[in-house]
Here is the input.
Amino acid sequence: MTADSSETRRAGQGVRAHLFLLAGQRPGDTHAEALATAHRYGRAAEAAGFAGVWIAEHHFIPYGVCPSAITFAAHLLGATRRIEVGTAACILSNRHPVALGEEAALLHELSGGRFRLGVGRGGPWVDLEVFGTGTERFAHGFPDSLELLTRWLSGQPTVAGNHRFPFRAVPVVPRPRSRLPVWVAATSTGTVDLAARHGLPLLLGLHADLAEKAELLDRYARAAEAHGHDPAGVGHASAHLAQVARSDEEAARTVGTGLPPLLAGTREYVRLDGTPAGQRGSGRIRQAACRHPSGGGTGPLPSGGDPGGGAARRTPSVVHGGGRRRPRDRPDQHPPTGHGGARPRSAGRAAAAGTDIVGSDGGFGVARRSDRIPCGSWKRLPLASGRRVADEGRLRRKGW
Here is the structure.
């Protein structure tokens, strides 16, 4: 991950490392092998000292072969003892919010409070046809679904439905002992405004560059304050791609050859309107790499590389936390960690105080709060098994 000049940096606090599990199918692997690999990475994350993992959910495409993030989370929670396990994200347009809420409350209790629920609207994909929820639910039902879900997880003893999901008041069983947080995947200003209205944290993916994410976070802060919420106490998540390698050149080469076969899986999305899904070709790959560069040193992403080459072992990041503006840090305030005593580097103006940073199973990563990484700039992120990925305070964010 890269860093801006020292003039732009803001000190963070409570930085923790998480892992994002895409469970993508690499060329030559079976679905079972992709799932087993993701599970091994999740268990290894706990052994290596990560604070948690987040699991993606996709349907009918090899880009991600986990169709139920909450089921995967339940299995991984049973295989671990310490780390948090979250969903990034459960597709709420395909689910009844009460059914999802019951499962989330169940996992929260069985895991001793280690489960984290992230939800998203999803896309206009064939999923809506298969599960029978339809385009109207996708286009207009997300606010009602989120409203009912958050009430179900609020700790109230009974909950009744709303106009979209009408039902009489029923007991909440199991009833959360306190309000459970819900992270909201956001790719539009409308969803940002919706999450801010409820005071819910965001999950920001690879769809936007860092300047765009900073704008979304600023918008969130204004909207949250207008609805009586303190944005400084909300911990968001933002996805970033980083590559761990022995040199800048090796990192750039690995990303340049490993990213195409992974991104190619997104072409298999089936839109209900019949239009092609996503961007194609090297432009999409170069765009993703520029938005989330990896490696060390400086230089652009190589234009060469076999699009059919083996998929890279990429390290994504998830960062969590709220925070206020902090004074600028001094280099001597942060002890070295990682390989050879080198300090981990993160994007300037990145995660807020109290942020978690994540690595991944060979897919993308999430970093709660937004790192600012200039396109074409590369810095190696030193990682060591059993050691912290980033010392607290090294993540930065756009000043909140």
